[in-house]
Structures are given as structure tokens and as C-alpha cells.
From TrEMBL:
PANTHER family linked to this entry: ELECTRON CARRIER/ PROTEIN DISULFIDE OXIDOREDUCTASE (PTHR46361), ELECTRON CARRIER_ PROTEIN DISULFIDE OXIDOREDUCTASE (PTHR46361:SF3)
Residue span, DUF547 domain: 88-198
Source organism superkingdom: Bacteria
Keywords: Signal
Organism expressing this protein natively: Vibrio rumoiensis 1S-45
Coiled-coil ranges per UniProt: none
Keyword Signal found: yes
InterPro entries assigned to the protein according to its UniProt record, in alphabetical order: DUF547 (IPR006869)
Keyword Translocase applies: no
Name listed for the protein in its UniProt record: DUF547 domain-containing protein
Signal sequence residues: 1-18
Amino acid sequence: MKYLIIFFCSLLSFSTVAAPKADLWAYWNSSNEKSTQVIDHSAWQGVLNHNLTVKGQNHLFGYANITAQDKQALKGYITTLTKQDPLQFNKKEQFAYWVNLYNALTVELILDNYPTKSITKLGGVFSFGPWDKDITTINGKKLTLNDIEHRILRPIWKDKRIHYAVNCASLGCPNLASQAFTSSNTEALLKQAESEFVNSTKGVNIQNGMVQLSSIFEWYAVDFDGESGVIKYLTQFHPELKQIKKKPSYDYNWALNEG
């Protein structure tokens, strides 16, 4: 019986690691393109300024040393965002809204459960991580982190660089941006995040004719037009990939991005 339970749990863990498909939640695919309203993300920027440090190729968050003032600022920022109706803003403001909200909610989630070695430990006994748990309510609708990433951001904007913008509080993840996203800096931040990740060893590691890629490129290969599309895309940054015939391996470090 013990081995059956272990086997069942291993199957459950495997299935939960499988990446969700982009599945549009049509309600959120609406905007007011005539709107010139600008969302204030300065509180989030302040939290980042005080707690995010750069060490090597990683951006590390000081969960252990965050002040009560910054915790309150974070909660206040999230509350302010969730009380707004994102559908009343234009698409550029919406994109920044959703990315910043996702990242702020993730940081809050870690802080509320700190200390923890990995975000994957927060999903309960039969879950791999907290991504399917209701985490916020906007316009009277409950949302999970997976809803924001896979039912709003990916299907509406259809930009592969979204994977570099949302952060899962892990060392294997593309870094939490040191700047809050805004409608005016989004393109620059996406380009920067893309460049940093694909040129880091956690994104692409080429050694002795072998290629190890981030598991992101396996989980979300569909967003890069399949495995061959992934290689074609990455060859823009690493021309030497043209000479490597062996299939890549994949890896991901779920350790907390703690500093």
C-alpha cells in the first residue's frame, strides 16, 4: 500500500508540473483604447528598490529582511490594483497591470509563508505549487496565478517574452525585474529580460557540444513554434547552436530566489 501511495503521488506531481495551455478567459479580453489613464506602480517600485539585489546572473529578493513598512506597502499596492477595473484601461496599461500584479502577488505569497525553501512547497500535499489556488478577486471574479498567466497574458498578448516577465520566485526563473512595468517601459523591459535570460546559463548552457536549456523552453515550446522553433529562436542569440545536432536536455532550479 505504501508503494502504491508513493506511485500515485509521483504521478500526481508529474501531471501538475505539465504546463497549462493558453486558454483565453474571454471576459478579460476587452479594453478602453481611448483611455489615457495611467496606473501608479510607484509603491511596487519602492518595494523592489528596497529589497531586490543583483548577484551574478540572479536577482534576489530579501524576504527575510523586508521591513514591516515595505510589507504594508506591498499589501496596499495589491489592494489598490485589485480595486481597479483593468478593463477600463488601454491594452498597454493592462499588460503592465497584470505583470506587476502577478509578480507582487507571488512575492506576497512567499512572505506570507516564509520561511520556505521553494514556492513548490506551498501548494499542499497533493499539489505542485500554489498556481491553481484562488489568490485574488478582481471585478468580483476569483483569479489564480495560472489564470493571470495562461488565461489572460499569454492568450491576449501572444508574446513569448511574457515568460521572461512573470516571476515564480525561483532561481531557475527569469529574473524578477528591478523596474516596475509601465505602459511606457514595457517593450524595453521585455527586450532586456529576454536578452538577460537567453544569455544566462540558466536559460541556455552550451558546453562541450551539449546543450542544456531552461525547462521553460520545453514546457512552453508551443509558444516558440515547437522544439525546432525553440532552437531557431535561440540561434539568434547563440549562432553556435547551428553546429550542434544532439537534442537539448532541460533543467530548472526551483530553489527560492532569496537574498
